[in-house]
Design goal:
This is Probable electron transfer flavoprotein subunit alpha. One of its GO terms (biological process) is fatty acid beta-oxidation using acyl-CoA dehydrogenase. Heterodimer of an alpha and a beta subunit. Its cofactor is FAD. By secondary structure, the protein is an alpha/beta fold. Helix 2 links the parallel strand 5 and strand 6. It has two domains: about 190 residues, 3-Layer(aba) Sandwich (Rossmann fold); about 110 residues, Rossmann fold (3-Layer(aba) Sandwich). The radius of gyration is 21 Å and the shape is elongated. Helix 3 packs across helix 4 and helix 5 packs parallel to helix 8. It is built from eight helices and 18 strands. The strands form four sheets. The chain has a seven-stranded parallel beta sheet with strand order 8-12-7-2-5-6-13, with helices on both faces.
Amino acid sequence: MFAVRKLVSSPVGFALGRSKATLAFVETSGSKITPSSLSALRAAQQLGNPITALLVGTEAKGAVDEVKKVSSIDKIVTSSSEKYDHYLPEQVSPLVASLLKDSEYTNFVVAASAVGKNFLPRVGALLDLQPVSDIIKVVSTDTFVRPTYAGNALATVKSKDSQVLVSVRSSAFAPVELGSASDVAVEDVSFVEGGNGAEFVSEEIVKSERPDLGSAKVVVSGGRGLKNKEEFDKIINPLAEKLNAAIGASRAAVDAGFCDNSLQVGQTGKVVAPDLYIAVGISGAIQHLAGMKDAKTIVAINKDEEAPIFSVADVGLVGDVFEIVPELTSKL
């Protein structure tokens, strides 16, 4: 790893005398804060400023009690319009921009989830600000570390914008702990019309009893070496079941139709950092490594002893996955 310093400049500097505060966008699932937002709140705490939590959608008020259990939250803002229920970026962006414009907020923090990645650039465009995406470390309120070149280099980025917008890589920050609920002021704001006609039509959600890939402690991933969907399911599913693990896949496996694209791990998929990551039949392209190399323990099983995956693996086993994995599963 090597460090690169970049300056993101703006003609507008930090306003003198402005009281500093952080606005943090909190995603919810029912009455619970999502794991990625718990990590984003950790990054918000490290900024050292009072934090206002923003929750949107009809479930927002139901999650208020959960948010009150997070320390450093000084205020909660909710907007309960049903138009925010599916986090459409065309709807969420105008609301966030209106809260940030001409306000005391010097920082805006959101998880680098699909939701955050969708609307943060739009907020930046509306306010003429340059977001700093996918940060893995907070240096100060205007300086952050983020990966670049598929994680092969780390850039230290300093923003000179009047307000700093950041998205947070959840695997790089431990989730905040939930303590006792505190007495925090709650303000409800109305829907902000953005003039965009986008509407939610429908969604198809892949339902699984397995742990969520983004927050699982154990992940079993399969690659193109598993040949087809039938073999992928036959090899990966029993092992994941024995370990109560989430299932992941390389982009090659997803593109070949072995599994749903929601299971893709890598630079263009999900970034995970479980306690244990088992890579089965995955060669280890640089894009895949960018999504899993922060796992605490990496186990690689591949017949090619020259596969790049072995360069990051803590435990490597060279051999036929169609013989090794079933045997491993039976012995577990």
